[in-house]
Specification:
Shape: elongated
Structural class: alpha/beta
Distance between the termini: 21 Å
Strand order of the largest sheet: 13-12-11-10-9-8-15
Largest sheet: 7 strands, mixed
Mean pLDDT: 92
Low-confidence stretches: 150-164, 166-177
Number of strands: 20
Strand content: 15-25%
């Protein structure tokens, strides 16, 4: 369960209606399958020990007694399993019958959770048999000896002697001679009443039970049953307020056309609303088909995302790796989601039983696949929808700014690279929305020492295709004059050599904007801001930064989307060539006419940095966990040494360069990760990175 991960399972076993012995055997068989897969939380369907579709047979005492016998059998035969197991059965309590979920762990019954909401409409008639468990809060006494299991064996004289010897040995170690004498004088160490007491176990029965993992105390599980999820105020809401971050649902939901989609949306939405994991296990083949059919549609969700979904009409087990620490972090971050008992909808006086279970220790092998491009949807249709949405957000932000200041002109430094290309595309869309002529957009190309023919030509052609006004200002002479003024040797290609060009370009853009009464549109992206890969008061500065929250990996897809959908063959051709051009600030002279300064050679691959940024800022994960996820996501692409090298670079630069992010120009937020000092990131510029770098160095020492 390293790094907060725990493998969970939802299972639909084969059942026979009213054949508890057969059903228990199938449950035990599936538990062993789940154990082999490493599952530590196992959830089975509602009333699975008897089958859900027993009808009036639920009134038969024989069936109810056999259900308890088989529950004890399941507990006994899974006593060596390092997992908490939830199974469903009918249970009599104080003269009433309840539909309950039983939590089992290491041979013990930890608690019974009764169903609160009993459907009694259409094909359902549960109120005919069962009583709502809404107000139930007590204990069920289980006499083990009634079921003939080895836990129920009476203590022999040998057992008594062994117990006495063990206590004597313990007291000897404590040198408590007075207590030794008292025990030696006691004539009856264990009498028949005490033996009977040992045979009896009091198990809590309540809809308010938290099952807490001893090895991972942050893992707190609560249960609800089928219909409980489908009501306006599910019990899981109260469970979450009292600390539950994993909800298990034992269900028997029949299949009708379209119900699977609704069921899936319910599970997804509830896990999102409660910032929790949700395991939904439902009945399947084997239930009576007298009037309805059950499909075994099992689901596992985490904070709104369906991690795993089973095929319907096929019984079996479903697995997923839940990230409990991620859920815990998200609850801590979202201050409006105050999951504290005092704010629970049912009031402050509700008592929750807390029972503890053991799930064993060890590392959970990850079968969950982490996307190496978390900012970019993997499905083409979703990616295209997302790209169009982002372009609209960017354009709407700029549109509002232009309209508010009554500005008719915009100025963009167009390099022929990806970022400035995206900025121009967004500006064109904003001008179109406002009904303003595109020629009021001034695209300024400013060739200097590192400019190549390829990027220069692409900038010129792009401006022409989009209908913007192209203005060329060669800055070579101005930069050389500046170098002479400050006494810098232009043959020394250091940071002064590079930044001198960047600041000269920004000065030109600002002055041209003043001439035309326009504003300078910023081109820098989120990835560059995270790494501080921008010249302070150079390309770092603008009057509205449309790309400020768009990561580099997403910039590429936005430009490609535009190329694919613009319906202009010439424009598409130019955009595709820009996409094929290496990312570079072009501040150093080219070699044989080819770009010599490639950004990713200097600061590392942007796909890695975007991955690090996403999990560091969005989910607040520590370096060791991000490294583990990167190993998973980039398996076969980057080795451990390379990942650690650039992870260290990322953290070092992220902390060092905060001063640049503390004074960013305005720009629209488009996703869940942003670094605006006014919005998402309020970080001191002089914060120390030692704690994070130390963890990376420890990882380097082990790899």
């Amino acid at each position: 369960m390293k790094d907060g991960f725990i493998k969970v399972a939802a299972g639909t076993p084969d059942v026979q209606v009213a054949d508890c012995e057969f059903n228990a055997a199938e449950i035990i068989k599936m538990v062993r399958e789940m154990e082999a897969e490493g599952a530590r939380v196992m959830v089975f369907p509602e009333l699975c020990i008897t089958a859900y579709t027993c009808g009036d047979l639920f009134w038969q005492e024989n069936l109810l007694e056999e259900a308890k016998v088989q529950l004890m059998r399941i507990a006994e035969e899974t006593a060596d399993v390092d997992a908490i197991i939830f199974v469903g059965l009918p249970l009599e309590y104080k003269g009433k019958l309840y539909n309950v979920a039983a939590g089992l762990n290491h041979g013990e019954i930890l608690g019974f959770v009764p169903k609160t909401y009993l459907p009694n409409y259409n094909e359902f008639y549960e109120a005919r048999y069962f009583t709502s468990g809404e107000d139930v809060d007590g204990t069920v006494t289980i006499r083990r000896s009634e079921y003939g299991l080895h836990h129920d064996e009476e203590m022999t004289d040998e057992d008594v002697e062994f117990g006495l010897e063990a206590e004597l040995e313990a007291l000897e170690e404590e040198d408590s001679f007075e207590e030794l004498e008292e025990i030696a004088e006691e004539p009856d160490y264990i009498d028949e009443d005490e033996t009977e007491e040992f045979d009896e176990v009091d198990v809590p029965i309540s809809s308010n039970i938290l099952f807490i993992c001893q090895e991972m105390p942050k893992l707190k599980i609560a249960a609800e049953i089928c219909e409980d999820l489908w009501v306006p105020n599910p019990p899981s809401v109260g469970h979450a307020y009292h600390g539950a971050n994993l909800i298990v649902n034992l269900s028997a939901s029949d299949e009708v056309v379209g119900k699977d989609s609704y069921r899936k949306s319910l599970v997804s939405a509830q896990s999102a609303r409660l910032l929790c994991g949700y395991i939904y296990a439902t009945a399947g083949e084997g239930e009576s088909t007298q009037d309805v059919v059950y499909g075994g549609h099992n689901l596992i969700a985490e904070n709104g995302t369906i991690l795993a979904e089973s095929r319907r009409f096929v019984n079996g087990a479903l697995y997923a790796d839940l990230d409990i620490h991620r859920l815990d972090n998200e609850r801590r971050r979202m201050t409006t989601c105050r999951f504290v008992p005092d704010l629970a909808p049912e009031g402050q006086d509700v008592f929750y039983n807390e029972v503890y279970f053991n799930a064993g220790r060890g590392v959970t092998p990850l079968t969950r696949k982490f996307d190496s491009r978390p900012f970019v949807p993997g499905i083409k249709e979703e990616r295209e929808r997302r790209c169009d949405e982002i372009l609209n957000i960017q354009a709407m932000g700029l549109k509002k700014r232009l309209a508010h200041i009554h500005c008719q002109n915009a100025v963009i430094g167009l390099s022929g690279g990806l970022d400035s290309t995206l900025a121009l595309l967004v500006t064109v869309r904003a001008f179109d929305m406002l009904g303003m002529p595109r020629e009021k957009i001034t695209a300024v190309t400013m060739p200097c020492f590192g400019t190549t023919d390829r990027t220069y030509n692409n900038a010129c052609q792009l401006s022409e295709c989009l209908g913007a006004t192209l203005k060329e200002v060669n800055i070579r002479e101005a930069v050389n004059l500046h170098f002479r003024d400050i006494g810098h040797d232009p043959e020394v290609h250091d940071v002064t050599y590079e930044n001198g060009q960047a600041r000269e370009r920004t000065q030109i853009l600002m002055d041209i904007a003043n001439q035309s009464g326009g504003i300078v549109i910023g081109t820098g992206d989120l990835s560059e801001l995270a790494l501080g890969w921008a010249t302070y008061n150079g390309d770092h500065m603008s009057m509205y930064a449309v790309n400020a929250s768009v990561p580099k990996t997403l910039v590429r897809h936005l430009v490609r989307y535009y190329a694919d959908t613009c319906e202009d063959a010439k424009l598409s051709e130019i955009l595709l060539d820009i996409l094929d051009t290496p990312v570079s600030p072009e501040l150093l002279p080219p070699k044989d006419g080819v770009i010599s300064q490639k950004t990713e050679d200097l600061v590392g691959p942007y796909e890695l940095h975007d991955f690090f940024l996403y999990y560091m800022l969005r989910w607040t994960f520590p370096p060791k966990k991000i490294f583990r996820l990167a190993q998973n996501a980039f398996a076969g692409e980057y080795d451990d040494e390379t990942i650690l090298k650039w992870l260290k670079t990322f953290y070092r630069r992220f902390f060092m360069q905060q001063f640049k992010r503390s004074c960013l120009p305005d720009g629209p937020k488009v996703g869940s990760v942003a670094v605006s000092p006014r919005g998402d990131l309020r970080m001191p510029s002089d914060a120390c990175a030692k704690l994070w770098l130390k963890q990376i160095e420890e990882l380097e020492a082990r790899n």
